[in-house]
Write a structure and sequence with these properties.
This protein has about 120 residues and is mainly β. The protein has one domain: Immunoglobulin-like. Helix content is about 15%, strand content about 45%. The protein contains one helix and nine strands, in the order H-E-E-E-E-E-E-E-E-E. Strands 2, 3, 4, 6, 7 and 8 form a six-stranded antiparallel β-sheet that branches. Strands 5-1-9 form a three-stranded mixed β-sheet, with no helix packed on it. The radius of gyration is 21 Å and the shape is globular. The chain starts with a helix and ends with a strand.
């Protein structure tokens, strides 16, 4: 009887030690550059230290270009975009370069699917 109790206690203890897995989702940001200059874009997680595309790279949109940017993220994670005129980090949209600014409507929750088209205008 004691042995069964110990086994149940061990099983319960092991169950508590295992962290719940983070579920992933795929979301596509649809971005259109309506500015006359090229634009650079990064996407920033608000819950963890993660940037897309990362590795000191950016998504590049020529003037007039629409780009679909697919990414894998954690279900429920908030992702904000930062965009700026290529070569001019003082002119920006969303959270700007390095996620340094605040914004009212530049963040999306990772739930799969795609965003509405995000228009970067003058």
């Amino acid at each position: 009887m004691v042995r069964n109790g110990i086994l149940k206690w061990l099983a319960l203890g092991l169950g508590l030690a295992v962290a719940a897995p983070a579920f992933s989702a795929d979301v596509t940001f649809v971005m259109r550059n309506e500015h006359p200059n090229a634009v650079e874009v990064e996407l920033y997680s608000q819950e963890r230290e993660y940037v897309w595309p990362g590795d000191n790279q950016v998504f590049y949109l020529d003037d007039g270009e629409t780009k679909q940017i697919p990414l894998s993220c954690e279900e429920g994670e908030t992702i904000c975009y930062g965009a700026w005129i290529s070569g001019d980090k003082q002119s920006y949209w969303g959270t700007g370069p390095d996620n340094a600014e605040t914004c009212d409507d530049c963040c999306y929750t990772c739930t799969g699917g795609e965003t509405e088209q995000i228009n970067l205008t003058e």
